[in-house]
């Protein structure tokens, strides 16, 4: 396959690119601020927020759109430039060069709900960050329909792995004694190891599963505190205490804390029909990271 990956220098994008290259696919990666450390990838240096970048005249079998600002970017105008306007600019460049776009989203689009979330659950975002990301998704979906391009979306749970927020914000802070859990940490979360996130994306592409949506997280619901405490036990550190929500919001921002502390449970039945999880629970995933 000839593949385009935006956000190829990011946590998921870099691993997706390496996986595809290892399988013999021809991978083009869009890089902006991050440097390329991926062998045999064809580099496209581009700022998607501007419309003067060039995408090679190649017919791509798949475009994976992973480039996005995270909730750590508190500037809403910057979020919109990157997440929405960048998506619009990208589509204009690729609409005649592919017939399948796969978009990476998150479970935050479902907002606060008491339901077991699946692909039929009502989308009701309750943060500005997610609303902007959803606007970009809707733009892509509608534009793909008008241009006869297949479109599929993955709603990922919290994607963790070595070198991610898991390493920086949990493992390192636990070891330094600086880790604090927002509130009391009793909110249920849905996690997915980055290897499984990549595996799902590759499976959708290889099987040409167009015009689909998938709720993507492992099979084990766990509170954030239990997730962190399991990690602490694994590395032999103390369980962290909590920090008042208003202080956490001051440090990390309201949108990020809202996304982190909104409880959620999901059904991954649909995605499990196309993909077998390498790490069916957070325990296997954490063990694989820390044991190595």
Task: Give a written overview of the molecule.
The protein has 292 residues and is of the alpha/beta class. The chain folds into 2 domains: 2-159 and 192-216, 3-Layer(aba) Sandwich (Rossmann fold); 161-189 and 220-266 and 279-291, UDP-galactose 4-epimerase, domain 1, CATH 3.90.25. The protein contains 10 helices and 15 strands. A 7-stranded parallel β-sheet has the order 3-2-1-4-5-7-12, sandwiched between helices. Helix 2 (76-94) links the parallel strand 4 and strand 5.
Question: Helical residue percent?
Answer: 40-55%
CATH architecture of the largest domain: 3-Layer(aba) Sandwich
Poorly predicted regions are none
Distance between the termini: 32 Å
Strand content: 15-25%
Radius of gyration: 19 Å
CA-based shape: globular
Number of strands: 15
Task: State the helix count.
Answer: 10
Oligomeric status: single chain
User: Which structural class fits the helix and strand makeup?
Assistant: alpha/beta
> How many distinct folded domains?
2
**Fourth CATH level, the homologous superfamily of the largest domain:** NAD(P)-binding Rossmann-like Domain
One letter per element, helices H and strands E, the order comes to: EHEEEHEEHEEHEEEHEEHEHHEHH
Strands of the widest sheet, in order across it, are: 3-2-1-4-5-7-12
Query: At the third CATH level, what is the topology name of the largest domain?
Result: Rossmann fold
Instruction: Summarize model confidence as the mean pLDDT.
Output: 95
CATH domain class name of the largest domain = Alpha Beta
Major sheet details: 7 strands, parallel
């Amino acid at each position: 396959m000839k593949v385009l990956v935006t956000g190829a220098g990011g946590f998921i994008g870099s691993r997706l690119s390496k996986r595809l290259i290892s399988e013999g696919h021809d991978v083009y990666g869009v890089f902006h601020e991050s440097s390329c450390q991926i062998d045999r990838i064809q580099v496209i240096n581009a700022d998607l927020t501007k419309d003067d970048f060039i995408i090679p005249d190649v017919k791509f079998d798949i475009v994976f759109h992973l480039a996005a600002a995270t909730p750590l970017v508190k500037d809403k105008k910057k979020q919109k430039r990157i997440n929405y306007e960048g998506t619009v600019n990208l589509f204009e460049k690729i609409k005649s060069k592919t017939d399948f776009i796969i978009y990476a989203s998150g479970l935050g689009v479902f907002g606060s709900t008491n339901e077991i979330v699946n692909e039929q659950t009502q989308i009701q975002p309750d943060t500005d960050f997610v609303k902007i990301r959803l606007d970009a998704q809707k733009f892509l979906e509608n534009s793909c329909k008008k241009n006869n391009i297949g479109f599929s979306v993955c709603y990922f749970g919290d994607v963790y792995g070595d070198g991610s927020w898991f390493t920086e914000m949990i493992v390192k802070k636990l070891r330094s004694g600086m880790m604090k859990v927002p509130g009391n940490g009793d909110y249920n979360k849905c996690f997915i190891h980055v290897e499984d996130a990549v595996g799902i994306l590759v499976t959708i592409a290889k099987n040409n599963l167009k015009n689909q949506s998938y709720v993507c997280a492992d099979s084990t619901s766990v509170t954030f505190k239990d997730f962190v405490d399991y990690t602490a036990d694994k590395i032999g550190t103390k369980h962290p205490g909590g920090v008042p929500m208003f202080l956490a919001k001051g440090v990390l921002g309201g949108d990020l804390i809202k996304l982190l502390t909104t409880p959620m449970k999901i059904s991954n039945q649909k995605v499990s029909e196309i993909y077998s999880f390498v790490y069916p629970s957070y325990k296997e995933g954490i063990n694989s990271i820390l044991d190595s």
